[in-house]
Amino acid sequence: MRHLGTQTLLTPRLVLRRNTVYDAPQMFSHWANDPEVTRYLTWQPHASVDETRQILEGWVASYEQPDFYQWGIELHETGELIGNISMVDCDESIDSVEIGYCLGRPWWRQGLMPEALARVMAFFFDEVGANRVCAKHDVDNPASGAVMAKCGMRLEGVRRAGIHNNAGQLVDVACYAMLAEDRDS
User: Fold this and answer.
1) Nearest-5° angle of CA 75, CA 19, CA 34?
2) What is the pLDDT of residues 141-171, one digit of tens each?
């Protein structure tokens, strides 16, 4: 793969961009402190804006690495930061990237996450040279699987006790993927 780092990506309604430390208040209030948003994720809701700022500082420092991909999801029309999408794992031996994402509750069920995911998938296939793009979700969160399916990913199966959720419990995860060759079928 030809790693390019986090590049600005555009969709009809969104700007996917690098985060800055100045995003901390919006990130905290729009999704990072919301237990409903983080319910099926692997991390606890943030306790303070300072915690969010510290995480953002780490991301900003990591943008120097060409294989670091972490986008803030911004509404093009208003400039409001509403979520994030990132590469959470990479297996260079098979040219595979795994995507993770979250979105603030006020923006659920508007087709925004499939729009962001489809653009990130296209970036990884077309520009980075990935052969496989995958994602997974807690089986108790089927809405996330619907996002993956809407973007053309196929359910590959369920990995039992495959991940720890944010409460530290082992949960089953549904695994989805798309191969570069699937894009033409």
Assistant:
1) 70
2) 999 999 999 999 999 999 999 999 999 999 9
- Is 173 inside any structural domain? no
Separation in Å, CA 109 to CA 90, 114, 162: 29, 10, 27
Q: Is residue 69 part of a domain?
A: yes
Contact 153, 133 (CB under 8 A): yes
Give whole-number Cα distances, 29 to 13, 22, 76, 82, 147, in Å: 21, 13, 19, 10, 23
Angstrom distance (rounded) from CA 180 to CA 38: 30
What would the pLDDT profile of 23-47 be if each residue is shown by its tens digit? 999 999 999 999 999 999 999 999 9
Domain that holds residue 90: 9-131
Quick check: is 124 in a domain?
yes
CATH of the domain at 22: 3.40.630.30
Whole-angstrom Cα distance, residue 170 to residue 148? 22
In total, how many domains does the chain have?
1
